[in-house]
Design brief:
One of its GO terms (molecular function) is endonuclease activity. With about 200 residues, this protein is an alpha+beta fold. The protein has 8 helices and 11 strands.
Length: about 200
């Protein structure tokens, strides 16, 4: 079912019937965006007793506008709107940090992505990331985990292995025509507009 038909389910309720859950689907555009977001901060959760996973979106309140934008994209899949969360007191700084978040229903249309991006509960880079990541998804990945430094954008990939980062470099090179050079500590990707993407990873 596309987003237009999904809109028939806009009446918010905490629980959906099995038949209602099966009516939801993801468009190709949203799948591409989710692929980029899953390389960033987005995570998919699933309990042992629930076969259907849900998406959890979270940002600091500094990025509230961005989080609201994401909610507008995925609100059809959500039981309620964004909520404010105040974290525990940080003893180092004496401050409590605020975040804003929302999450979706538990839906079968998220199972494919959950199985691709998670192995034994750990987020991974799927082997077919080149098929999943779109240019729009890349933009959202940058919004999620990128930051400007010098004349380019750095992407934080410290949660992934060196093999996974190499796969990301290969994908960006082959699919988006980015010239990539690999160093021991950072991966630097350059293209004709002199935008530099540095894929950082931990060295063990």
């Amino acid at each position: 079912m596309n987003n237009t038909n999904n809109s028939n389910l806009l009446v918010k309720q905490q629980r959906l019937t099995k038949a209602e859950r099966l009516q939801f689907s993801l468009t190709a555009q949203l799948k591409g965006i989710l692929a980029g977001l899953l390389l960033g901060d987005l995570y998919i959760a699933k309990t042992k007793t629930n076969v259907n996973p849900w998406l959890h979106f979270k940002q600091s309140t500094v990025h509230e506008d961005y989080l609201i934008h994401l909610y507008e994209l995925f609100k059809i899949y959500c039981p309620s709107g964004p909520k404010l969360k105040i974290g525990a007191l940080d003893k180092r700084t004496g401050k409590s940090y605020k975040s804003i978040y929302f999450q979706t229903y538990c839906l079968p249309c998220f199972i494919e992505l959950q199985e691709l991006f998670y192995v034994a509960g750990k987020k991974v880079v799927p082997l077919n990331i080149g098929d999943l990541l779109t240019i729009e998804g890349l933009c959202y990945w940058i919004c999620d985990d990128g930051y400007w430094q010098g004349n380019g954008v750095h992407l934080c990939t410290d949660s992934f292995t060196i093999e996974e980062v190499n796969l990301l470099v290969k994908t960006l090179t082959q699919k988006f025509n980015l010239e990539c050079t690999l160093n021991k500590k950072i991966m630097v990707i350059e293209y004709e507009f002199l935008l530099v993407l540095c894929l950082n990873y931990k060295v063990y």
